[in-house]
Amino acid sequence: MKRRGIKKGVYIVPNLLTTGNLFCGFFSIIRAINGDYVTAAWAILFAGVFDFLDGLVARITKGQSEFGLEYDSLVDLCSFGLAPALLIYMWVLFQFKRIGWTVAFLFFACGALRLARYNVQVANVEKKGFQGLPIPGAAYTVAGYVIFHHHVFGNTVPESYLLLISTLFLALLMVSSIPYRSFKVLDLNRRASFFLLVLLVGVLFILASAPQVMIFIVAVTYVGLGVVEGLIHSPKKIRSFADLLARFFHDAPEELVMEEEEKKKETERTLKVVGRENAN
């Protein structure tokens, strides 16, 4: 009976942390509705802390379960999908009317698709890394900018198409195939523990020195490094895209025919010739 009780406790602790994540997401939504955007942004950041802790505790205690995975995904959709989408809409995107709420919805929808794809591929494709920007990274970028803007410019509301485009860009990154590194693969053995401890202390020191600025910078750096790394590891795609652009700007319009279309036409001509020969 004691062993069963311990086992239940192992599963309860990560789920309690996940519930803390859910509370922060819900609290962020309430604060955004009330116009307290900075507090709403900080609530999203604290939700990320609970999200990190519940996964860490589950791995250390071996309390991972299918229920925990599904519960964590539902909670993440609230804290890192709905909460930041509502925050960025009520703070800035409402100025763009229909386009604004459409982009906010795309952020929310792409976050849902991102989580669904993760649940399907967690055992193979995304076991050692992420395929596409993880939804907490997108949420941290949005929340980090709200805090950064308030710290630098005060309570002024920015009116810029850059935020509209950036929100759309983050949404597309979540459903892209660009690889992003995962912190879950960090080795927790004794040999690496000291290095990880020093690294963690260094990161905490940098964040604590100016959290209103550094959180946004770290989030943007993570997003940007993933894009750069994805471009570096996809030279063939870059070359093919560059060749297509070169042909578009230098070739005549009648020469701008894709290779697949040319092959298809050639196959059709060959079949017609064979058909005529057989008929004769």
Rg of Cα set: 24 Å
The major beta sheet can be summarized as: 2 strands, antiparallel
SS-based class: mainly alpha
Order of helices and strands: HHHHEHHEHHHH
CATH architecture of the largest domain: Up-down Bundle
Our count of helices gives 10
Which whole number gives the mean pLDDT? 81
Feature tags:
280 residues; mainly alpha; Four Helix Bundle (Hemerythrin (Met), subunit A); 2 domains; two-stranded antiparallel sheet; 10 helices; globular; disordered N terminus
Any overview of this molecule?
- It is a single chain.
- The chain is mainly α and 280 residues long.
- It folds into 2 domains: 2-233, Four Helix Bundle (Hemerythrin (Met), subunit A) (Up-down Bundle), CATH 1.20.120; 238-279, no CATH class.
- Helices cover 78% and strands 2% of the residues.
- It has helices spanning 2-33, 37-60, 66-91, 98-121, 135-153, 161-174, 190-209, 211-232, 235-250, 259-279; strands at 129-131, 179-181.
- A two-stranded antiparallel ribbon has the order 1-2.
- Helix 1 packs parallel to helix 3, helix 2 (37-60) packs antiparallel against helix 3 (66-91) and helix 3 runs parallel beside helix 5.
- The protein is globular.
